[in-house]
## 1
Amino acid sequence: MKERLDREYFENLYEQSPDPWAFETSPYEHRKYERTLDVLQGRQRAYRSALEVGCSIGVFTAMLAPLCDELQAVDVSERAVAAARERLAGFPHVRVERRRMPEETPEGPFDLIVASEVLYYWPEEVMLAALRRFKEVLAPGGVLLAVHWRKETKTYPLQGDEVHELLLKHTHLANTTTIVEPEYRLDLFEDRE
């Protein structure tokens, strides 16, 4: 089993580059962001309280912020959190914090939880622990949105498709939207209990 990619791994990446995945300039990232926002806006509702897990430098966070009354964005890297705070300084309803997930999951409740390009950094047992915590802090009727890169990588403990298969297998949340592209997969899960 591959080790969990944790704070030191990410701090090293941000030390080498302020935008290690080219979130600001990548056409792939911008296509994925647009599609993700389309799915969320298509639900025709505002989100009172949202949680973004693995916000990195806050590029998507700034796009998500107008859809939320309150948004809590978290990342394990202090360097990323500092950059995200600077980017989001004009959004008083957005809070950015350094947290190690899932152990330091905020209490919620959250109408929306976004886990984009983050769950495959953890081994299966940690990812499933995160899923349990998400369910605990998800508000009644809330939604969990997961989006992950589908190309194989030898670095991460899980692959993107594995993450989504585990989500489908281990949650009672209703899978109401699935988008499978060659580069990424998006699944939206709703609490209908």
## 2
Amino acid sequence: TFSTNLEAYVGDALVSLTICALIISGGLGFIVFRDLGMRLRGTKKRLTTHSRIVLSVTLCLLVAGSLLFFWLERRHGMRDLPFGSKVLASLFLSTTPRTAGFDTLNPASLGHASTLLTILLMFIGASPGSTGGGVKTTTFFIVLLVVLKGADEEGRVSLGSRSLGINSIIKAFGVVGKGLLIVIASTTAILLLERGQVASGGGSLV
């Protein structure tokens, strides 16, 4: 990339949307592409539960993230941009943290709330079988479903006509728990190693 990453193309729809499309497709995973291919060829009547969850969570994260970034930065980091560029920048900000490292808006210009949102999207990451990292969209979905809906007496969580067993729930919370421990430990280590710079105002937690 350029010395300023892709910030010179913040208002360029062709560049922004092309990079976003590549990032999103790279983060969906090969399982989803296989299912979509079989569905389009007519060899499969419907997508698997996995693919439907991945596509739904990905869409929700993109839309919710874009709206939040637009609302948080429209009068701050994006205040000098025209409306169309703000929309493109918001979409790019919502897309890139989960599986790539590009930016069309200088991260230093973002407020603390936007930085925290970026960290959350990075933590969630991409989907299983993809080129991205994170705890994965399916894991995030299971944890969110359990938190919002709760489990029955047998430890199962209903999902339409299907249900998630206790083993899947334990694995999902285990992955998130390990991820949080790694984040907390690495953040603490960085703060300790860089405490002199932080104390002198050269850095901060966010």
